[in-house]
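Q: Structure for this?
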Amino acid sequence: MSKIIVDCAISLDGYFAGEQRGPGNPMGGVSGRLHAWMMKEKAFWRRIKMEGGTEDGKDGELINEVFDRTGAYIMGKRMFEEGEVSWAEDLYEADVYVLTHEKRDPWIQKGSTRFFFINDGIESALEKARASANGKDIRIQGGAITIQEFLNAGLIDELYLHITPIFIGKGIRLFEGMDPDKYEIQVLQVDSTELTTHMHYRLIRK
Amino acid sequence: MSKIIVDCAISLDGYFAGEQRGPGNPMGGVSGRLHAWMMKEKAFWRRIKMEGGTEDGKDGELINEVFDRTGAYIMGKRMFEEGEVSWAEDLYEADVYVLTHEKRDPWIQKGSTRFFFINDGIESALEKARASANGKDIRIQGGAITIQEFLNAGLIDELYLHITPIFIGKGIRLFEGMDPDKYEIQVLQVDSTELTTHMHYRLIRK
């Protein structure tokens, strides 16, 4: 059965994005600092269908691990709007469900990426994503508020968290208003590399 | 030369303490959950001069490491007030400088613990702590706001952070209003145990 997973980077002070994010300023301008550990990895650039990277390291293995287990994606509208203007064609190679109030026809790309726009909530998106994933896992891609919604609904099974040793100071925190009684959380694995620390947690709903 | 160090536990969502902390409710009631990894260690109970603990594990080694390298402490007034009512006699076995607006004579305990009350700011406390530490390190003990003040003044050399896999949801975060440009931060060591993840960072002032 599909697991519901989250995989994202935060700064040491807990920020997922900076201030004033939007399509013209994705992630509030902090992505390069937060994701330096990804940017140097060939695996990352292969996955986003661009040229780049100089290394095939542990960081890249983890990038591949999460891409490989994922069969469908769910994301919030603002994250989609940030990406729509810049993502390569067929980036996700899977069905992507976008949570939005906007009515919009599916966006079917060349290849196997299809965006569906869901107007009736996270449970509905999850049900459709489950069908798309066909036994693979479902990744709640972001942004932070969408991840918080799934976390506080008790729906997340695993969390990959990359803690990048920088301070951001202001912006959007990943963990805001967490329900303290929803989960028992277990550390599955921790791997530290030069540019980040990879934490892999299992969340067991109480 | 003495290093200035911080050693504390935070929840996965970044909280150092819960809500409504005070002498009658130390750390807002979250200490047991945040510090479960300490409570089981004999080293911890030996250090606080009480009976307790069942294990001599990795968590305990780290507790000893930090106690052993520390030659003087600095803390905020509210942390002191929480501890004054409950700490064992001669807990610190060192000089402790309490940042406060209150004028108060030194509190000299039996043994080697002496509390001094400093009214003229963190640099003054640091200068006196350096003399007390006599080449050992100076630990900024807490609370969060005192640690933030030292961090943003660019004065911290090393940070031991224990990330406990729980959500607290509300209270006092360790990292609030961090200056994003003050330090280059390097990961020195990461050790994961069942109940927490120990992160050890070097902070290099830019």
